[in-house]
Amino acid sequence: MKNFSSKFWEWLLKRSPQNAAQPNVQPNPIDSVGNINIPIGTEPLETYIETESILGGPIKIGSEEGVLKGPDGQLIRAHNKLSILLGCNHIVAQFQALDQEDRHIRGIAGKCFYCDLEVQELLQKGKITVFDAERLALVCSDCGKITNSGQLCCPKHYTAVSNPDGTTTYLSPEDAEEQSRQNTTKTILSSIALLFGQNSQEIPQENREEQNDD
User: Fold this and answer.
1) pLDDT (tens digit, 9 = 90+) per residue, 47-58?
2) What φ, ψ does residue 28 adopt, rounded to 5°?
3) Burial category of 157 from C-beta neighbours within 10 Å (exposed 0-12, middle 13-18, buried 19 and up)
4) CB of 93 within 8 A of CB of 81?
5) Ranges of each domain in the chain
């Protein structure tokens, strides 16, 4: 059964032939399953496999349910479910977020634009696998925010700004840099305006009247 389960997860998480580099971020999930003690001589009788995936990507989320026959004839029911640790450090077990009466279940919002740039550089250097490059760029539905520039960002890359009306605006690194420049310009202009205003007030009243008569 252990070999059968390993083959299933190998098929479930099969990675691209481009993935030649050895992972140094997260071991292959295949190595972390099959820890249930199943008696030697157990024979699989029935298996039900259900997966979710994004077309063109290596990430698959799924589950396996099976019925096995033990060496003594006893029927054994087994269930394996795969969860993914995303780049925002949250674990998800499904793509779509779900709100139930008693709890909220996170989903996957998509890829953080800036995390994706970072992991692609690591991938090109052979420091991570294709699977980890995809996983680390993903952000959960709770963490992912759309910024002013229209990019999906994780908390590491966006800046939250509270508006006077109580709403929140999310700034990408470029948005934050641009706003900082605008704030600096406003500060300089305000200082200049204040300086000229003070100079005008320092002119004696009689001199102002003479200037007006001229």
Assistant:
1) 888 888 877 778
2) -55, 130
3) buried
4) yes
5) 2-175
**pTM exceeds 0.85 for this model:** no
- What is the three-class DSSP state of 76? strand
Instruction: Please list the alpha-helical segments (H only) found in 102-204.
Output: 113-124, 130-137, 173-202
Mean pLDDT for 145-174 is 93
Question: Which residues touch 76 (CB under 8 Å, ≥6 apart)?
Answer: 38, 42, 67, 68, 69, 70
Model confidence at 9, in pLDDT bands (50, 70, 90)?
very low
Q: What percent of the chain has pLDDT over 90?
A: 37
pLDDT at 18 > cutoff 60:
no
Tokens 């300086």 correspond to 195
d(CA 88, CA 17): 27
Token duo for residue 3: 């070999």
CA distance 17 to 168: 43
Contact 45, 67 (CB under 8 A): yes
d(CA 97, CA 105): 6
